[in-house]
Amino acid sequence: MNHAMPLKGLDFAVIAAYFAVTLAAGLFMGRFVKNAGDFFSGGKRVPWWMGAVSAYMAMISCFVFIAYAQIGYEDGLVGVLVFWSTAAAIVLGTFIFARRWQRADVATPVEYLERRYGPGVRQVVSWCGVGFRILNNTVRLYTLGIIASQFLGISLARGIALGVAIVLVYSCMGGMWSVLVTDLIQCVVLLGFSLAVVPLALDAVGGLGALRAALPDHFSFFQGHRGTWTFLAAYYLIVFIKYNGEWSFIQRLTSVPSERDAVKMGLLTAATFLVFPVVAVLPAIAARAYLPDLPPELHERCYIEMCIRLLPPGALGLMVSAMLSASLSTLASEFNVTANVLTTDIYRRLFRPQAGERELLLVARVGTLALASAIAVGALFVAGLGGAFEANKLLMALFGVPVVIPSVFGILWKRPNTAGVYLCLALGVTSGLLLKFLWTGLSWEAGTFIQVGVALAAFWLGALFGTSARERASREALFRQLNGAEKGSKN
User: Do the Cβ atoms of 59 and 266 come closer than 8 Å?
Assistant: First the structure.
């Protein structure tokens, strides 16, 4: 099945106009960037509702329309249940972590690690975190490339290059404020046209009742191997750990003015992730009845195929823009926050402590370009890992969990120390690799539970090696700040 060029002239005009408006907004916001603080955190003046929209857009991408759509096509409402793992992670994380991140009062998501453990841990986690985010974002770029190649009739490599070029322009020029403003535009378009596809898809198969009659198994939340309790428990666990350690989410929690704003931001973000999975997965379920003969290698493209068949010219172009913008928003956020760590936690700390604001801003933009190049190259190899969902699941468990645990639980638990961080990283990654490539008889679920258990145990056992007086004093001061009562100015 080949739709090399489904877009018409009107669609291309709509796409061009859409991205012209988006880029103009991003470039306009660049006028307000005066220093690295504005570039990375919006000067801590971000309204909570804007932070919520941006956090939502930072956590979705074309991955939604590829990976979760594939699950919807193959297993039905299980795709919604798997997708809801994000909402559960954010709700729990908001109540557990949001106020603590606000009280930490940090410029970068790993800055507090120096106070918590020491300068060595800050550097190690910074480097490891940058490496993991490069790997993680290759999956997002891969899904963007699939959509670009399907709709625009270009190769995967060219689709990736096009997406990277667009996101680099406005993220480098305007930093956080560009990301926030363009996120608002993209969110409105994405939600509007995603909602429009649902009735069209249902009408194409004779309505919701006809679809349920044709695919009764697809309307069970526990269909297929991804609908088992063990799979869901393992997946929800790693999503909770990973998403609450997401630098882009932490960055937004710390960019709003107060603790109360951080909580409201987190809850609004979670609410969007309760609604959107239904909107995103239902057309994929309808595709199973409308396009029952899609070969397995095209299951990832079922949502795209429905859009091609059901949307008229012009509307199809705007839907393509919305789908592409989902990834562009995510990547802009990831580029921004990762460049923040490269600039603040690595460049200034290791190489140029005396660097001025203009120099740091230049390094931030050069770092963003370097990150984008590395991610673009890596995206070309995602298909070899089994596609978007399998690659994301693999990378989250293998590398995301050990890298994130010291940040996520280090701000919550006082006892773990520097030795625990190094043990967590070493034993967590090693056990994951062994369970994946050596002890192949274990299921993914069992391997995930074992690896998380090993990483958490190692994180705690490091305390047996002793804690230096300097680390203990710094840790005590930090936890007095984290556990302190909410200040009147933060209400």
Answer: no
CA distance 402 to 386: 22
DSSP 289-317: HHSTT--GGGGGGHHHHHHHHHSPTTHHH
| Superfamily of segment(s) 9-396 | Sodium/glucose cotransporter (1.20.1730.10)
Tokens 């958490």 belong to residue: 456
Structure letter (DSSP) for residue 485:
P
Q: Which two tokens stand for residue 396?
A: 């989250």
The Cα 172–Cα 170 span in angstroms is: 5
- State the DSSP code for 221: T
Handedness of CA 159, 161, 167, 170 (dihedral sign): negative
Annotated domain spans of the chain: 9-396
For the stretch 331-387, pLDDT in tens is: 766 776 677 777 777 787 777 777 777 787 777 778 777 877 888 888 878 877 777
pTM: 0.80
208, exposed or middle or buried, with CB in 10 Å at 0-12, 13-18, 19+? middle
Q: With contact defined as beta carbons under 8 Å apart, do 93 and 266 qualify?
A: yes
Using CA atoms, how far residue 475 sits from 114, 116, 117, 485, in Å, is: 9, 5, 7, 18
Joined tokens for residue 432: 């994951």
Axis-axis angle for helices 156-204, 48-59 (nearest 10): 100
Of 380, 388, 384, 226, residue with least CA distance to 302: 388
453: tokens are 């258990």
The size of the chain, in residues, is 491
